[in-house]
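[Q] Does anyone have a clean structure-token version of this?
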Amino acid sequence: MSEENAGRRLDHFLSAALSQYSRARLQEWIDGGRVRVDGAARKASYKLRGGERVEVEPANLKPLRAEPEEIPLDILYEDSDIIAINKPAGLVVHAGAGRDSGTLVNALLHHFQHLSTVGGDLRPGIVHRLDSGTSGVLLVARHDAAHRALAAQFADRTTEKVYLALVQGEVKSESGKVTAAIARDPVRRTRMTTRLGAGRSAYTEYRVLERFKGFTLLEVKIGTGRTHQIRVHLASAGHPIVGDTLYGAKSQPALGRPWLHALRIGFEHPSTHERVTIEAPLPPELLAWKARLD
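[A] Here you go.
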């Protein structure tokens, strides 16, 4: 390990050096004594001096397979090819390291039993995702052919994805766009950033719908689907989403989530090839918070 890592916490160093593994997985190995510094097991908070030898003994990764759970779903649309769900904020889309229950996938398997297998045992039916704190419309594929057809549209950027976002501050222009590349923040691994000048290309455009004292309601369209894209792009423009403390917004205890909602999605139906548009109504907590500004 190079001298430039002197002073870094062990867990932060590992997250950067072994980014292919989740933080939860690395923490599990640290707790299990599978990470040694100069031959000695250390805690996650251990401060490196620089020049040490860091050894990691990976444990076998347990295979994850989603199981059905009786969790209520708000179904906006369904046919033999696709399902559209109005996802509530707080519901994680699929399981990952450290979490294998209580997700949208668990609920889908209970309600529909058979979903596409393209995404594997952990993500059956999942064509795209929404952040846990984001509510709104999300498409699910019932079989592999529908999954591939929808995935191709996302890849070709022919789907229309429209969001509503209430942001801090008064946005000056009536419309705008952000095209900064997005990368994982090397210091805070739970965040994304545009500050590195490198990363994956991303395109976000917005227009003002309503103005309030100290806040602005935006309609947002995205041409790409990067992790936290809308959140990091709007924050980089100086207007973090209300309630999104991860990206610099003030804490809003009465809200408890980012004021971000996937309002509408438009796509070509996998079988009929007709254009389909599905909308998800704003949830009560977002309507109530916005009403305070009127």
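[Q] Thanks! Anything notable?
[A] The chain has a mean pLDDT of 91.
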